[in-house]
Design a protein that fits this description.
Length: 170
């Protein structure tokens, strides 16, 4: 039996991992990571509309006024109910004794959580017995956040606010 002993100089160099290979592998790995992060960053910046609340800093400075308005609303004892009836959004407003409140101007701010493209403010039309309604058949289907604002008929002061989440079906 004859054995052949190979020295280090005789080992074929094919498949040998060198420092340059490791450098190229590392640069390729981090290059792919930076490219993917760049794509995610681009889509995050271009799809986020910005502030959720207009002038949020100024609203924060005036937060005590917001708390006072909330306390005044609570003292009224009014209650509200809202929901979809067909393609109409109906808002019912009653006083502390359960009597319907009529003669108020009610505006509604419709907002989508995902996009500001279809956000709008609409005025509701008064119906009988303290109900107010607006037709929403032109809005896209989906989940909507609605803020109702009841305005005093004697002035332009908002005397009552109510929030509701509704689902518009196609």
């Amino acid at each position: 039996m004859t054995g052949q002993i190979m020295s280090a100089e005789q080992v074929p160099s094919k498949g040998k991992l060198t420092g340059w290979h490791v450098l190229l592998i590392m640069l390729g790995f981090f290059g792919v990571m930076f490219a993917v992060n760049g794509v995610f960053l681009y889509h995050a910046i271009t799809s986020f509309p910005g502030e959720d609340v207009k002038k949020s800093y100024l609203q924060g400075l005036d937060y005590n006024h917001t708390l006072e308005a909330k306390a005044a609303q609570d003292q009224l004892g009014w209650s509200a109910a809202a929901g979809m009836v067909g393609s109409d959004l109906v808002f019912d407003l009653t006083d502390a004794d359960g009597n319907p409140l009529i003669g108020y101007q009610v505006t509604t701010e419709l907002r989508r959580a995902a996009s500001t493209a279809h956000d709008q403010i609409v005025e509701m039309q008064p119906l009988q017995s303290g109900s107010y309604a607006v037709n929403l058949s032109d809005l896209p289907a989906g989940r909507w956040d609605v803020q109702f604002q009841v305005i005093d008929p004697a002035g332009d002061d908002i005397v009552f606010r109510a929030d509701k989440r509704i689902v518009i079906t196609p």
